[in-house]
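Weekly sync, protein design subgroup
Attendees: M.S., D.O., the rotation student, P.L. (late)

Item 1: inverse folding check
M.S. brought a backbone from last month's batch and wanted to see whether the design step gives back something sensible before we order anything. D.O. pointed out we never logged the input encoding, so this time it goes straight into the notes. Structure tokens as presented (473 positions):
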């Protein structure tokens, strides 16, 4: 149920946003924004990001909103402010808002043990505040260690207190009241329509289906100027850690609601934006669901989203100046740039420069961007040719016990080797030798071995981990 404050303010937020881009800019301000837009396009081009959508807000007004590049390269579909992206860990700020609403309403104490909500926690040492601040690893409260999987345990907390699934809480409390009509709870919600139509209704499901037609295609920067098609995130639900799909236009509505204290009171929001203090008294780089940075005496609050490939996101606010930037991309490059030092991100450094806050970040940001590109180029592997008869010998089905018994189906087609895992999408393997293959979008190595006269076997190597399979077909 929408609380009284939210009910009174929702219409105002919608009307404010729907007024469009502020028309009160001076010629100087317009020129400054144009320069910023050119800088953003330059960074996008250098990082080979196919599509980038951006929104800049000042004093709860959108002053710039654009789509750059192509949401679908193959079909030349331009990016717009209404292009849909997976926002990955920006979802954590939504979960933070839902948790802080429960605190504000007296329904939840952040010092409550997580063991009350999950049997995975054997004692009462880990508190809800530790999950929310990423201080639950090791000795609770001792240090910051970002961990999305542990953060996801907050899903159960919200569901138990609200008495309904996280998805419904999210839709009923934030997405629908704020008229975030181009936001979708998670990628496969339409596939799971039978599960949700009873609580959401046919109209919502039809809208999600239409909205997903604007979902950007996923890509990854492979190096030496090559951008390859990636896969959609495998996560098939929405929870506290990730899942939401949205647009910069919808997230601008969310940003306005935050600044107008529609969702939680000002003092509650400021509590979430206060750096968590460790057991030893150290100020940590994270608050309650938000990163908090001390940058030359200023305090940007922010979050990034990163799927490894396919999508990334950056959302930065400077509350003292009442300005925000939202950036969504269909490759990993946006959030890969030294994400724990946000001013070292070239896009963010340029944004801070709009308000005179850039200081000395430009040289460092340029170095970070250049090194990222060089690293991708240096790690680019040389592909070799493998005879079709050898590729055909690798075709089969392989089951991996340590990967939840997932089955990897491998086949040869027109001299190329492909695979598909249980519930996954088709991906191409590239050969670096006659027996070793790699993915251009993930750091996995596929190694095929075979004793003479025996069917091939497959192992997958990821860093120091090796996963052995059993050939079942």
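Designed sequence read out in the meeting:
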């Amino acid at each position: 149920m929408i609380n009284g404050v939210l009910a009174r303010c929702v219409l105002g937020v919608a009307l404010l946003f729907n007024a469009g881009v502020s028309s009160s800019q001076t010629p100087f301000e317009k020129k400054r924004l144009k320069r910023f837009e050119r800088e953003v396009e330059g960074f996008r081009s250098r990082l080979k990001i196919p599509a980038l959508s951006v929104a800049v807000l000042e004093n709860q007004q959108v002053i710039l909103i654009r789509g750059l590049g192509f949401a679908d390269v193959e079909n030349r579909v331009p990016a717009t402010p209404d292009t849909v992206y997976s926002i990955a860990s920006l979802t954590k700020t939504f979960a933070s808002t839902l948790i802080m609403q429960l605190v504000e309403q007296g329904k939840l104490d952040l010092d409550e043990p997580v063991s009350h909500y999950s049997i995975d926690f054997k004692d009462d040492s880990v508190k809800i505040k530790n999950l929310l601040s990423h201080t639950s690893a090791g000795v609770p409260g001792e240090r910051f260690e970002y961990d999305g999987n542990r953060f996801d345990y907050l899903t159960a907390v919200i569901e138990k207190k609200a008495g309904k699934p996280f998805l419904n809480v999210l839709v009923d409390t934030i997405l629908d009241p704020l008229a975030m009509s181009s936001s979708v709870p998670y990628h496969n919600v339409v596939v799971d329509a039978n599960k949700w139509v009873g609580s959401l209704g046919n109209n919502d499901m039809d809208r999600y289906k239409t909205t997903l037609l604007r979902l950007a295609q996923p890509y990854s920067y492979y190096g030496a100027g090559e951008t390859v098609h990636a896969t959609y995130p495998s996560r098939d639900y929405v929870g506290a850690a990730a899942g939401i799909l949205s647009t910069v236009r919808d997230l601008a509505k969310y940003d306005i609601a935050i600044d107008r204290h529609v969702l939680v009171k000002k003092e509650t929001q400021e509590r979430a934006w206060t750096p968590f203090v460790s057991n030893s008294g150290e100020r940590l780089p994270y608050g309650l669901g938000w990163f908090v940075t001390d940058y030359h005496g200023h305090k940007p609050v922010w979050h990034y989203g990163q799927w490894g490939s396919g999508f990334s996101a950056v959302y930065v606010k400077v509350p003292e100046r009442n300005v925000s930037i939202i950036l969504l991309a269909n490759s990993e490059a946006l959030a890969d740039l030294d994400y724990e030092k946000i001013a070292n991100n070239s896009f963010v450094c340029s944004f801070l420069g709009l308000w005179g806050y850039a200081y000395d970040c430009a040289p460092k940001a340029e170095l970070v961007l250049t090194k990222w590109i060089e690293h991708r180029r240096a790690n680019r592997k040389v592909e070799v040719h493998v005879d079709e008869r050898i590729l055909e010998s690798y075709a089969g089905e392989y089951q991996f016990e340590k990967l939840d018994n997932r089955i990897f189906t491998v086949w040869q087609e027109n001299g190329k080797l492909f695979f598909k895992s249980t519930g996954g999408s088709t991906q191409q393997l590239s050969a670096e030798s006659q027996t070793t293959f790699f993915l251009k979008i993930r750091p996995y190595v596929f190694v095929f071995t075979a004793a003479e006269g025996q069917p091939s076997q497959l192992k997958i190597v990821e860093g120091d981990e090796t996963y052995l399979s059993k050939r079942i077909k």
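Discussion: The first helix runs from residue 4 to 18. Residues 388-471 form a domain with the Lipocalin fold (CATH 2.40.128.50).
Action: P.L. to compare against the previous round before Friday.
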